[in-house]
Amino acid sequence: MLSIDPKEVPTSKLHSYLLGAVGPRPIAFASTIDGEGNVNLSPFSFFNVYSSNPPIMIFSANRRVRDNTTKHTLENVIETKEVVINVVNYDIVQQTSLSSTEYPKGVNEFEKTGLTMLKSDIVKPFRVGESPVQFECRVNEVIALGEEGGAGNLIVCEVLKLHVSEAILDENQHIDQFKIDLVSRMGGNWYSRANLGMFEVPKPLSVIGIGIDGIPSEIRCSKVLTGNDLGILGNVAALPSKEEVIIFSESSNSIKELLKTDNKEEVHKKAQEMIANNDVLSAWKLLLA
């Protein structure tokens, strides 16, 4: 058995061991706002519920390992003492992942991910309309666990109001664990879907992706492509060039015939198949053709 002294390995490697061994971890999809009204939305998997009376949840916004900087979420909750914790189900997992892109301060991740901003009843941060359960919270305390890169900051949240989609309730008004279809984080790029098992979601680009708001409207408003499909399409650095699209449109007889039909729904279904097969570049070329 490999034995490891935490003080003798790089923080990044220790971080990998911890996340690989402790899971699946629920995801706090945290919506915050700063004193100037700038909106932020970001997921955190160091998260759980710790008390029912009072209702207390805690998530940790760790200092970045690579440069010891802090995240906008942490800065916002220290400034405003409010947060909305949205739960993540399978339908929004790709958009949730896209929101973890390190956009500059002031960029609205709701717009980048194509998720709906719902006004909260008590707190200022917005709720995620697509999340099946949303918790409006007051931040009672922030506990810093250290000052070096990788150190956690425990954000102790008291639930002031929760909103539950009726679509996930059973006949007794309890949350149906199959209907809610929660996802959780594992190590690396791996997630776990509560009722089906593990699946992989590639991490967002190290460079800034175009986001869902950078997708042409006729594609973004597709009747076929899901939010998860759009989340994957938004995680590209740039769109294919016109020359690349033209070459692709002439690449095979099946593609030529499909484009000749001018049937957008069928084109989008084919692009959806390509996305499912991890051929996102071809999907983009088809959609733009």
From TrEMBL:
<dbReference type="InterPro" id="IPR002563">
    <property type="entry name" value="Flavin_Rdtase-like_dom"/>
</dbReference>
<feature type="domain" description="Flavin reductase like">
    <location>
        <begin position="22"/>
        <end position="176"/>
    </location>
</feature>
<comment type="similarity">
    <text>Belongs to the flavoredoxin family.</text>
</comment>
<keyword id="KW-0288">FMN</keyword>
<keyword id="KW-0285">Flavoprotein</keyword>
<dbReference type="InterPro" id="IPR012349">
    <property type="entry name" value="Split_barrel_FMN-bd"/>
</dbReference>
<dbReference type="Pfam" id="PF01613">
    <property type="entry name" value="Flavin_Reduct"/>
</dbReference>
<protein>
    <submittedName>
        <fullName>Flavin reductase family protein</fullName>
    </submittedName>
</protein>
